[in-house]
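We were asked to recover a plausible sequence for a given structure. The inputs and outputs are reproduced exactly as logged, with field labels preserved.

PROBLEM: sequence recovery
POSITIONS: 493
GIVEN STRUCTURE:
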């Protein structure tokens, strides 16, 4: 076939893959998308959709490898010089001295070297997805507690450990994978092993401690993130990507970039290993990702946990109803199924329902009022939580209140949280063994009084330390709001 014919066939194959994905036939969709990009190896839109589809089933290593392959293809054409920076960041990443960061950004991605503006948008979105996959896969700060007998290790933080500097733990697996020659397996391949668990001290290099290795891996991983982010940030400036078809990918990237530009989590002091607490939900899991929540010492619970992000992109409670077969439902249960037995879990859903679904359902006549729509949504949530409990009988289950950040939807998120905290809802949650986390006020001036007008609510300001990107709370909320709520809801045994 001629190149244009191959491209046309590839788009048809990918369209069938899209239909399969929408029906939660994700494995078949992945196989179809793989065929499509092999037919059209420079088709950015197909690669972008392939990566999204692979991520649905936690097939993150192949998703990352396909992204790398796409930028390799651009580089081989000799026109997109910025592709070299991205390829080098993933393959070796370290600049002089082993440190990586914005100074390594290199050439800028520009639309002029692409056949169309849409191809440029899809290309930069592929880069955004690379950053998201890496950010979610591994801590960007060491989570191995320093040894008591080695107080200097607490001070090292991100300083280079013993040389050579350890590479990110995912790199060797990425380099050994040839996606062109590897079929889509029935068993997904996470980037480093998902869900994340605390690293062990086995098979350490001679003369290295677990603290050194963890600090070095985290430093290298963070360096790759920062180098990729610098390249993509320079390409997006002044382009109003929030108004383009890749606005969702851009929103994730913007949030992650804001988090990376802030202070990284401190290296934990000596003590017991951190226990993972898995946070499953929509994009608001980014705010708590890889942060440490300290709890007052109590019998039968850890004194500190690391919040491990388990993202379900675009998830609505509405998608989880029994008669739905939408792919976010597939992704949610995929995240639930991979958790270690008995692991504690926080469920964080509902913000997108409040932002996009509630008013629309009233306008379409599905509900007579906003109140009845929210009440029905709470009912669906309780049914979902009951099924989660059935599948995770030994896990502690917590429900995260919806973030009251967006001014436009604040009257809905506050009402939703009030219904969650109502005595009737609390009674049903207690029956299925689920704890609602109760937060201190997040708006300046304290908790708004019931019945306050939506316009007045929208004019209230988020507490300054909680501000991030206008949609999500800043990671500082973990210490100020989430950890205290966990201390109350997680009783001693």
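RECOVERED SEQUENCE:
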């Amino acid at each position: 076939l001629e190149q244009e014919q191959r491209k046309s066939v590839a788009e048809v194959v990918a369209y069938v893959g899209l239909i399969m994905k929408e029906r939660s036939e994700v494995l078949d969709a992945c196989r179809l998308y793989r065929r499509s990009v092999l037919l059209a190896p420079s088709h950015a839109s197909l690669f972008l959709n392939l990566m999204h589809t692979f991520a649905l089933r936690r097939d993150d290593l192949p998703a990352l490898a396909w992204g790398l392959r796409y930028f390799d293809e651009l580089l081989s054409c000799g026109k997109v010089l910025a592709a070299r920076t991205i390829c080098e960041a993933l393959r070796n990443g370290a600049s002089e001295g082993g440190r990586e960061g914005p100074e390594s950004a290199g050439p800028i991605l520009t639309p002029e070297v692409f056949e169309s503006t849409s191809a440029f948008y899809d290309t930069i979105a592929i880069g955004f997805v690379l950053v998201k996959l890496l950010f979610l896969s591994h801590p960007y700060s060491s989570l191995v507690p320093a040894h008591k007998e080695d107080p200097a290790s607490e001070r090292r933080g991100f300083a280079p450990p013993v040389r050579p500097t350890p590479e990110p733990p995912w790199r060797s697996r990425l380099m050994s994978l040839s996606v062109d020659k590897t079929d889509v397996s029935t068993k997904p391949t996470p980037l480093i092993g998902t869900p994340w668990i605390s690293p062990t001290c086995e098979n350490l290099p001679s003369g290295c401690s677990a603290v050194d290795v963890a600090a070095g891996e985290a430093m290298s991983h963070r360096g790759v993130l920062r180098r990729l982010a610098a390249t993509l940030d320079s390409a997006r400036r002044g382009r109003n990507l929030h108004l383009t078809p890749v606005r969702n990918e851009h929103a994730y990237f913007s949030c992650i970039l804001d988090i990376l530009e802030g202070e990284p989590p401190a290296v934990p002091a000596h003590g017991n290993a951190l226990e993972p607490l898995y946070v499953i939900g929509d994009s608001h899991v980014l705010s708590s990702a890889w942060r440490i929540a300290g709890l007052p010492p109590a019998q039968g619970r850890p004194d500190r946990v690391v919040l491990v992000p388990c993202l379900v992109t675009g998830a609505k409670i509405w998608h989880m109803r029994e008669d739905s077969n939408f792919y976010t439902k597939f992704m949610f249960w995929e995240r639930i199924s991979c958790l270690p037995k008995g692991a504690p879990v926080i469920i964080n859903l509902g913000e997108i329902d409040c932002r996009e679904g509630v008013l629309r359902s009233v306008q379409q006549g599905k509900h007579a009022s906003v109140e009845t729509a929210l009440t029905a949504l709470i009912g669906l949530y309780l049914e979902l939580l009951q099924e989660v409990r059935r599948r995770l009988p030994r896990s502690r289950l917590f429900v995260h209140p919806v973030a009251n950040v967006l001014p436009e939807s604040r009257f809905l998120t506050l009402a939703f949280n009030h219904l969650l905290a109502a005595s009737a809802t609390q009674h049903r949650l207690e029956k299925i063994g689920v704890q609602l986390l109760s937060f201190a006020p997040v708006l300046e001036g304290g908790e708004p009084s019931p019945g306050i007008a939506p316009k007045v609510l929208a004019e209230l300001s988020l507490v300054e330390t909680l501000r991030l990107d206008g949609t999500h709370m800043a990671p500082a909320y973990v210490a100020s709001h989430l950890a205290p709520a966990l201390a109350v809801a997680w009783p001693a045994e």
